Amino acid sequence: METNKNIQDVIPGVAITVVLAVIGVLLAPYIPGFNAVLIALVLGMILGNMTDWSKKFKKGMDFSSSKILELSIVLLAAGMSVDEIGDLGWQTIVIILLMVVGMLFATVALSKRINCPRSGGLLTGFGTTICGSSAIAAVAPSVAKDKHDIGISLAVVSLIGAIFMFVWPLINSLVDIDPQKMALLTGGTLHSVGNVAGAGYSISKDVGDMAVTIKMLRVALLAPAVLLFNTLTSETKPKSILDFFKLPTYLWAFIGMTILVAFVDIPKDILGGIEEGAKWLLAVAMAAIGFKTSFKTLYQSGKKVLMFGFIIYFIQVAIIILGILVLM
Fold first, then answer.
1. At residue 4, does pLDDT exceed 70?
2. How far is CA 292 from CA 190, 242, 287, 299, in A?
3. How many helices (H) and strands (E) does the chain have?
4. DSSP letter, residue 178
5. Whole-angstrom distance, CA of residue 68 vs CA of residue 58
6. Cβ neighbours of 106 (radius 10 Å)
7. Whole-number percent of the chain with pLDDT over 90
8. pLDDT number for residue 192
9. How far apart are CA 278 and CA 71, in angstroms?
């Protein structure tokens, strides 16, 4: 009887977040620069600030923002394809590897020194380093001290990614840049695959193809990046090698899924279906997180996180340019 009661308490809140996710998926093709995850987050924020649903349906909202979020992260690993990465050349691969490691250390160091909510800075830096919203989702359960910070960091990386999706093609039109170097600048710095594709293919097909492949390399580094980032941000430093591997269950499942996809020949249709389902679940989770984010908190903390986002983004660009100058 107690189990049935708990399920009944959870269903209404989950149902609301599912509806918002569906709306997000339906609207995404018609709103440039917005994906389903961001739309669901914004809708959740609007309703959360206009109603008392976040309190009234708290159990369901909590379930969506925790358990459904963790499940979406595990399933997102189905999209971690490493095909065609080997064709990029060792210089490009080395530059991206150095950028990722450098960005993780820079994010942790700066988040301690710059006056912004620390978990908001950490999430923004990690999302900037790897792949935007998916990367933020991957570390949020272990890094975010406050659910507000998840919404703020998602908004910041989406805004900066959208801005520079237009800036890079503009720069390319003013300065004649080699296609491979332009692909590195777009694929190595923009936040989401949509940002990369939008910028890259607006320059040329060759730049677009290379940029998206470079972006896939960054995405493929998500699992090891999560391991390193959790170690760097842990408040209790590992005393032994065994402590290094004390990760939440969902992260082990994510790593297991990544290895499975890399070494087992799973039909692309199945992988595509799993990845699509993961994006739906992520939209559901972000709708719930939106309900927990107040506009007042967003305004007060968002300005500081936005400043941090721009600083860390320019550091990322500087690392890529330095790599190009030294290795190419």
1. no
2. 28, 35, 9, 14
3. 17, 0
4. -
5. 14
6. 18
7. 23
8. 77
9. 8
- Give the pLDDT of residue 230: 83
Residue 75 pLDDT exceeds 70: yes
| pLDDT over threshold 60, residue 101 | yes
Q: Write the Ramachandran bin of 95: left for phi over 0, alpha for psi from -120 to 50, otherwise beta.
A: alpha
CA distance linking residue 190 with residue 167, whole number of Å: 11
Picking from 10, 5, 43, 41, the residue whose alpha carbon sits closest to that of residue 156 is: 41
Output 1-8 pairs: Cβ under 8 A, ≥24 positions apart.
6/59
Burial 188-216 (b: 16+ CB within 10 A, else e): bbbbbbbbbbbbbbbbbeebbbbbbbbbb
For residue 243, the model assigns a pLDDT of 54
Q: What is the DSSP letter of 247?
A: -
Mean pLDDT of 267-273: 86
Task: Quote the pLDDT of residue 238.
Answer: 54
Neighbours of 310 (CB within 10 A): 15
Ranges of beta strands (E only) in 178-285 are: none
